[in-house]
Every structure is written in structure tokens, then in C-alpha cells.
Amino acid sequence: MAVFFKCSLFYLLLFVCVVLCLVKNCRCKYEPTWESIDSRPLPGWYDQVKFGIFIHWGVFSVPSFGSEWFWWYWQKQKLKPYVDFMEKNYPPGFKYENFAQDFTAEFFNAKQWAEILSASGAKYVVLTTKHHEGFTLWGSKYSWNWNAVDLGPKRDLVAELGDAIRNQTDLRFGLYHSLFEWFNPLFLEDAANVFRTNKFPTTKSLPELYEIVNKYHPEVLWSDGDGDAPDTYWNSTGFLAWLYNESPVRETVVTNDRWGYGSICKHGGYYTCTDRYNPGHLLNHKWENCMTIDQKSWGYRRDAVLSDYLTIEQLVKTLVETVSCGGNLLMNIGPTRDGRIAPIFEERLRQMGLWLKVNGEGIYHTTSWRAQNDSVTAGVWYMSKPEQEAVYAFFLNWPVSEKLVLGEPFATEGKTVVKMLGYSEAVKWLPLEKKGMTVMLPQLSYSQMPCQWGWALKLTSVR
Predict the structure, then answer these.
(1) Domain 380-460 maps to which CATH number in 3.40.640.10, 3.40.605.10, 2.60.40.1180, 1.10.760.10?
(2) What is the pLDDT of residues 365-394, one digit of tens each?
(3) CA end-to-end span of the chain, whole Å?
(4) Does the keyword Metal-binding feature in the UniProt annotation (predicted)?
(5) pTM tops 0.90
């Protein structure tokens, strides 16, 4: 009996060991090489949602002048507008660090932000946890007290917004993190050594990345700012292997391509290539167009004028073009130092939401069609839902003749049906000689229009 018990125990322990080994191997699927990291399939949710909101917020929101690169332009490049601004408005000897005391966020209401962001129709949010200035919006153990818990608001802004978004919306929460910091002495020392030393990433940047992933569980990790240092200096593949194998978000997290000099538009989960990237054609890799409503800055600017802000018509056009070519749109706003989303940004966000309530069917969960834009009529862009045998033709200008010529679809009389999103009745159409169709748009008064900034036709049974 004792022998039987010992044998049973042996085989039970052996079974447990085998299971643990299998689990470990499953969780260590990706090796710390770009070949392995790049083989990871992009989680499907990201391609389906199409539209997100970027938020640039930090100490740069205090001077709120010129650009979120204020510190660099003033202290390093000594650009005249920034130097003059400081000499005119601040005493001699004023340091950039002194701005932190005025980054107060006293009007920051995370629940209010979450409601506004949700109303935009976006499906994910990416918040700057730390820009190139090095100031963290959470109380990082590695920030040398240069953070929003020890200075300024004395609040964990990342946690507050993350909790509000997750508790009251269906948005996914993402975090931006800058790898380098302009004036951090450890980074400057490594740079002086031509990155043969790595004090900064091992003691500052990488520990921060592990910290925000473990603490806030972001589903987007938006890396930026390589400081001209290669990915080997940042140990990017080592970190990403951990992120994809062992982290609490290993199944759902998506990442971009900014993980060291030379990696952009080449490695990572999805490509950003350049700021405001909008190629106008299909790529063979998922990509994102990160862009700003304020055309001149990512952070809030008090010196902005109305013409600096993109109109809702321009934003809709950008969204349609981006999604048609297989990209996601990440549209940026810059809150104020006291925690407000300025009315101009709120208006644009709510306008996008109203437009997507009508036209979202042709944006969310779509795929690129065989043609991205029309060969006959300018300003027409296509998306598709193959499982519904549906093609969506977005047109950005309502023709005076109320006849819209589409040169791409092969339509079949008696089978093809055309409808306009937001309008209940079928729309009449006539075939062109070889391919294409002329759509007879309904005669609608302004108040009858389903929307005012671009429209979508749903074509079923076309090829």
C-alpha cells in the first residue's frame, strides 16, 4: 500500500511539473528578438475600433505657449519667440521646473473627461504619462519627486482618469511614455558615452515602463522619444518579450513602433511612421495616423487662434481617408494646466461623436475594400464588410446635381441595393456602361440631412 501511495504521489508530482512547464512555455512564447516580437499577431480589437483620442498633458501645459516642446525650444535651441516670451513674462533666473507648481489641475474632473471622451465616438484613449520633460502624471518611484503626486496637483492623474474611463465607458485605456528625457543627467551621461553605458534605461526609463504596466494595465502602450539611441540601448525587445509573455495585459495590449532609433515604421505592433502620417494608400502592415486638432501643437496653447484648429469637416475627411487605407486615427487634444478640456476641443469631440452615431456602421469593424478611393469622382472613399456583402462609399461633398457617380463598384440591376446611412428609404441608382453606377441622391432639406459633414452610402451585392 505504501509503495502504491509513493508511486501515485510521484506520478502526481510529475504531472504537475509537466503542466507547469507547459504553462511556462506557453507564457514564454516570444523571444527578445525583433523577429520573434514582430511575429505576434496584433490583438483583433485594435483594428476593429478604428478611432482613438490622444491626450497631451504635462508641465508644458503651464506656459502653454508655442509647443509642448517649450523647454527644449527655450533652453536648448533658444528660439527667439520662446526666449522673448520668458523675458517678458517671468523674472530672471526662472527655471522650467518652477512651472510645476502651477500645474494644478484644480478643475480636473476625471468623470467629466470620461463622458466627453466617450461622446466623441472613440473607442480608446491614450494619455501621456510622461513626455520628454520627464514629469510623470503618477507618483513614480523613479521620478525623483518630479511628478504630479509630489508637486502641483498632488494627485495620481493616471489612476483617476483610468478608473473613470473603465467605470463609466466602454473605452480602452492606453498610456504614452517617452523613453528619453531631454535634460536628465543620466541620459545626458549615456549620450556623451555614445550609449555605450545604459544608466538611464536601467535605473529610470525601463523601471517606469514596468511600473505603469503593472499598476495601470494599459491596453495600448504608446512609446515615443528614442533620443537617437538604438533599441539595444533601451532593451526594447527584452521589455516587449516580457510585455507579451508575462505582463498582466499580455493578451490584449497593443504597441506601436517607436522603440529605438531605426525601429519606427519597421518594428512593433502597429506602425506610426511619422506624426500625422496619412499615406493615402494601403500598407501591408497595420498603421495609425496620430494627429492633432490644433495643427501647431500637441499640448494646449494660449496663443492659438481659431484658424489653427482643424474644422469638423477636415477631421471627418481625415478619419475617412485613414480608415479606408487600413489605418486607425488617433486624434489629439491638449488640456489646460488646471485640468479643463477647452470648449474648442470639446466641440470637435462631440461633433465627431454625432457624426459617428450616423455613420459609425461604415467605420467600426470594417476592412479595406479592393479600391480605397473612387477612380471617377474625387472625395469618395470606400470601406467594406465582406460578411454582410456590403461596401460603404463615403462622399465628402454633396453634388449640386444630386447625382453621385461611382466609378468603382460592379453593380447588378435587381440585386444591388443602395441606402444612405441615417436615411431609411432605398436610394435609386443606374448602372454605367461597363462598371460603376450613378446614384440618385434623395432631395433633402437641410433639417432632413442625416448629418452635415460627409455622408455614406451602403452598397449591398456589389463587387
Answers:
(1) 2.60.40.1180
(2) 999 999 999 999 999 999 999 999 999 999
(3) 73
(4) no
(5) yes
